[in-house]
TrEMBL record, chain A:
Signal peptide segment: none
Protein name, as recorded: Excinuclease
Species, as recorded: Listeria swaminathanii
Domain UVR positions: 133-168
GO terms of biological process kind: stress response to cadmium ion; stress response to copper ion
Higher taxonomy: Bacteria, Bacillati, Bacillota, Bacilli, Bacillales
PANTHER family assigned to the protein according to its UniProt record, in alphabetical order: PROTEIN-ARGININE KINASE ACTIVATOR PROTEIN
From TrEMBL, chain B:
Domain of life: Bacteria
Enzyme Commission number(s) of this protein: 2.7.14.1
Entry similarity comment: Belongs to the ATP:guanido phosphotransferase family.
Organism: Listeria swaminathanii
InterPro entries for the chain: Arg_Kinase, ATP-guanido_PTrfase, ATP-guanido_PTrfase_cat, Gln_synth/guanido_kin_cat_dom
Record lineage: Bacteria, Bacillati, Bacillota, Bacilli, Bacillales
GO cellular component, one term: extracellular space
Keywords in alphabetical order: ATP-binding, Kinase, Nucleotide-binding, Transferase
Gene3D superfamilies: Glutamine synthetase/guanido kinase, catalytic domain
Substrates-to-products reaction catalysed: L-arginyl-[protein] + ATP = N(omega)-phospho-L-arginyl-[protein] + ADP + H(+)
Designated name of the protein: Protein-arginine kinase
Gene designation per UniProt: mcsB
Length: 172, 340
């Protein structure tokens, strides 16, 4: 439901008011408009406060639910949940490291004497890919400079080199 | 390939640096394939074939579901596979080279466990051999790797380099002079782990210990190996000092203990593994101190290896009960020791 006052934000509060005919009428408002409404109307202030505390309570519950969901975080690749990891202390696949990154980093720090960053050997393929990436960025800088200086012939050559490097990377 | 025959692997047969104290060095690299579930949760037989294809004829493949329980146990006693692989890994396999100084376990806790062994304190040689195999594999297959966490492993204690460097040492001098406890504490405070000979969770037996790195992340492979080598050099020196002290101050008592153990092994008719291992440890010390001219270090390694349960069953050609095992053990030991 959209806020009946501003017509833009999502309504979070139903404000019950007596209308001119003496009937109870619900006014659906977003948080901002509800706050303004509460401040503008002295007599509705208490009612609005009540509504606000209800909202606050809902919000807290929602936060707690979020936290529970976080505890039940599951790796999208192998379907291992973080709870299951805690039972075996073994992750299920390489994707678990990104799925549980937030939870794993402190544990890794604890078992690895505070270290959390790899500095050792890198697979040759990764090293090559990094090398190509560096070369591409280097050539792109050069290209930008050539274009700026209107040296278009030279720029075309560099452009083709970049294309070739990118295509080479895709092959792998 | 006669890996199941009673013979020493090359790293137990040949001489190595500082081998009066150090029995062997080992480097293990844990690796996993990208996009595949880790084998601790799901084992795929085709992964074994996929990896085995990378290796040429110089390696023999043994699948756990195609060899007998006795053969698995022989491989465990030779330290070529882990007890975990023997007991838990249905689609596990191991690739072994002829010299038996390279063992590549497949579908253990990780997809690959590349292990290279050398005699004596030669961690750098083992590292070089392991990295060469690793480089060979990564040309053909894509590893699970992350820039932040390095090589991704099933257990967080292996992540990063995936490397465990370990050294097997015989420290009877430090044990007898009761200095072993403080030495182990000092090793631990430097970030290294001390274990019994069958790795994690096993009890130290017969003054033989395994020292390895605890941390696999935040240090390079070379740094880890350098640090461990330095620690080992300290331990070796202290063990030698302890042995000299024993020889000088308690010569007759030491000689008595060594020769009693020799007498025991030469004459007993029933012996348990623990009793044998302790006596072998004494004789090994005697050999290093020059008490026996006719016994070689290799013979000590043969005694340790061939007096284990699976080798005794292999020797006898049948299964046996506990008492019979002790009888056969006594006989096998007498034969090895008496054979000059």
């Amino acid at each position: 439901m959209i806020c009946q006052r501003c017509g833009e934000n999502k309504a979070v509060i139903a404000l019950q008011q007596l209308n001119e005919a003496g009937k109870v009428e619900s006014l659906y408002l977003c948080e901002n408009c509800a706050a303004n409404e509460a401040l503008s109307s002295e007599k509705d202030l208490v009612k609005a406060m009540d509504t606000f505390s209800e909202v606050a309570l809902d919000f807290l519950t929602l936060l707690q639910k979020e936290e529970n969901v976080q505890k039940k975080v599951v790796c999208g690749n192998c379907q291992l949940s973080f709870d299951e990891f805690l039972q075996t202390n073994r992750v299920g696949c390489s994707e678990c490291y990104s799925a549980f990154e937030e939870q794993l980093v402190p544990i890794i720090g604890r078992v690895q004497n505070g270290y959390t960053k790899h500095v050792g050997k890198v697979p040759a393929e990764v090293e090559r890919a990094e090398g190509v990436q560096n070369e591409i960025s280097h050539l792109q800088e050069k290209l930008a400079l050539l274009v700026k200086n209107e040296e278009f012939e030279e720029a075309a050559i560099i452009r083709d080199e970049i294309r070739a490097l990118k295509a080479g990377g895709e092959d792998k | 390939m006669n890996v199941f025959e009673p013979r020493l692997s090359s790293w137990l047969e040949n001489a190595g640096d500082d081998d009066d104290v150090v029995l062997s060095s080992r480097i293990r690299l844990a690796r996993n394939l990208k996009d595949e579930k880790f084998p601790i949760y799901e084992q795929k037989e085709e992964i074994v074939d996929q990896i085995a294809e990378v290796f040429d004829d110089s390696f023999s493949l043994f699948k756990m579901n195609q060899i007998s329980l006795l053969e698995k146990a022989l491989l465990v006693e030779k330290h070529l596979i882990s007890p975990y692989m023997m007991n838990k890994s249905e689609y596990g396999a191991v690739l072994l080279n002829e010299e038996e100084n390279v063992s590549i376990m497949l579908n253990e806790e990780d997809h690959l466990r590349i292990q290279c062994m050398t005699p004596g304190l030669r961690l750098f040689d083992a590292l070089e051999a392991a990295l060469q195999i690793d480089g060979y594999v990564e040309e053909k297959l894509t590893y699970a790797f992350d820039k932040q966490f390095g090589y991704l492993t099933s257990c967080l204690t292996n992540v990063g380099t995936g490397m465990r460097a370990s050294v097997m040492v015989h420290l009877p001098g430090l044990v007898t002079t009761k200095r072993i406890k403080s030495v182990i504490e000092a090793i631990r405070s430097l970030g290294f782990v001390v274990r019994g000979i069958y790795g994690e969770g096993s009890m130290p037996a017969s003054s033989i210990f395994q020292v390895s790195n605890q941390v696999t992340l935040g240090k390079t492979e070379t740094e880890i190996v350098e640090d461990l080598t330095q620690v080992m050099e300290q331990i070796i020196m202290q063990e030698r000092v302890a042995r000299t002290t024993l020889k000088q101050k308690f010569h007759i008592a030491l000689e008595d203990r060594v020769f009693r153990s020799y007498g025991l092994l030469m004459n007993c008719r029933i012996i348990s593994m623990k009793e044998a291992a302790d006596a072998i440890s004494d004789i090994r010390l005697g050999v290093e101190l020059g008490f026996f001219e006719h016994i070689s270090r290799q013979k000590m390694n043969e005694l340790v290896l061939f007096s284990q349960p699976a080798f005794l069953r292999k020797e006898a050609g049948r299964d046996m009960d506990e008492l019979e095992e002790k009888v056969i053990r006594a006989k096998v030991i007498r034969e090895i020791l008496g054979d000059k």
